[in-house]
Amino acid sequence: MITVEALTKAFGPVRAVDGISFELAEGEALALIGPSGCGKSTTLRMINRLIEPSAGRVLIDGVDTTSIPPATLRLRMGYAIQGIGLFPHRTVAQNIATVPRLLGWPRARIAARVEELLDLFGLPPAVFARKYPHELSGGQQQRVGVARAMAGKPAVLLMDEPFGALDPITRTRLQDEFLAIRRRMGTTVLIVTHDMDEAFKLADRLAVMEKGRIVQLDTPEALLRHPASAFVESLIGSEDRGLKLLSLAGVTALMQPATGWTAEADGTFRKAGADASLAPLSASASLREAASRLVFAGVDELPVVDEAGAMVGAIAMERIIAFGGGGR
Ligand code: ADP
Ligand code: MG
């Protein structure tokens, strides 16, 4: 879908972006991650031609973007940035309708799209469609910004620190919502962030940038298990690498058949010979949650249940420890 080849931008003597290459497949989410000033935003802005490259090229579906007029190109690429420029004198609905209107969609289709996005982002149309940006909280404005960027069903969504400048709770909620929406719509995303946890959460692969170059491009698990350099390792945060690894995988990945457990009437489970019964773990839990519960309960095994509360297996601490084990 998007191919970036040896893309370079020099500002005077400074090479803000220095010959970077990567590919973004349809439906994939790739994060550009790295410290402030490493060239993330400049890269993003060369892709939608807000900045013209000094060298290298960008292809969209095999077509060199320099052969596409910038205005046309930008209609095909959603762009959401931190603390964004919503149009202050246009309502929420009008803001979201910007690109569909420029694309000449029929009125009814625009109205349906606006409604769909407001619903998806948890902003009931009856309450929010006619509000103006200044009547919204920071988190609501950010939601509208992302909804606006997605409105025209862009081939790719470019996001530059879209959830920055929000309090941690709102930020987490927006990330969760965005993740669910992206999975549902299959949107192709290129997201810029300096927050490794955000990148791990939202992206399928991460391109770690240092001084204008990509120093490692890998899946979250590969980055955690095999950081290419001390720089990448420091960015990941060496102390809680193990816990981050456990966050990436679900408990069902390591589940075994549950033997010797019986269900109690109150929804808890008792292991044969044990004097206390235990609350089970949900099958949707991560290995990190499983480890936390095991430690807190002070046991080496917990039953796992499905949504209906039926036991589907058991998770053992032993296996969770063996899942790491690369850092000796
Ligand atoms: P990031 O988004 O990773 O924080 P940027 O892409 O914004 O980094 O900037 C990369 C480098 O390019 C920085 O050193 C920045 O100061 C420089 N830079 C960015 N834009 C300009 C510009 N318009 N003129 C001169 N230097 C710039
Ligand atoms: Mg930036």
Detailed description of the structure:
With 328 residues, the protein is α/β, with parallel strands linked by helices. It has two domains: 2-239, 3-Layer(aba) Sandwich (Rossmann fold); 251-324, CBS-domain (Roll). It has helices spanning 40-47, 70-76, 92-96, 98-102, 107-120, 125-128, 138-150, 168-185, 196-202, 220-225, 230-236, 241-248, 287-297, 317-323, and strands spanning 2-11, 14-24, 29-33, 55-60, 63-64, 77-81, 156-160, 189-193, 205-210, 213-218, 261-263, 269-271, 281-282, 301-305, 311-316. A six-stranded mixed sheet has the order 6-7-8-3-9-10, sandwiched between helices. Helix 13 links the parallel strand 13 (281-282) and strand 14 (301-305). The radius of gyration is 23 Å and the shape is globular. The two termini are 40 Å apart. Bound molecules: adenosine-5'-diphosphate and magnesium ion. Magnesium ion (MG) binds next to helix 1.
Any key phrases for this structure?
single chain; 328 residues; alpha/beta; Rossmann fold; CBS-domain; six-stranded mixed beta sheet; four-stranded antiparallel beta sheet; 37% helix; globular; binds adenosine-5'-diphosphate; binds magnesium ion
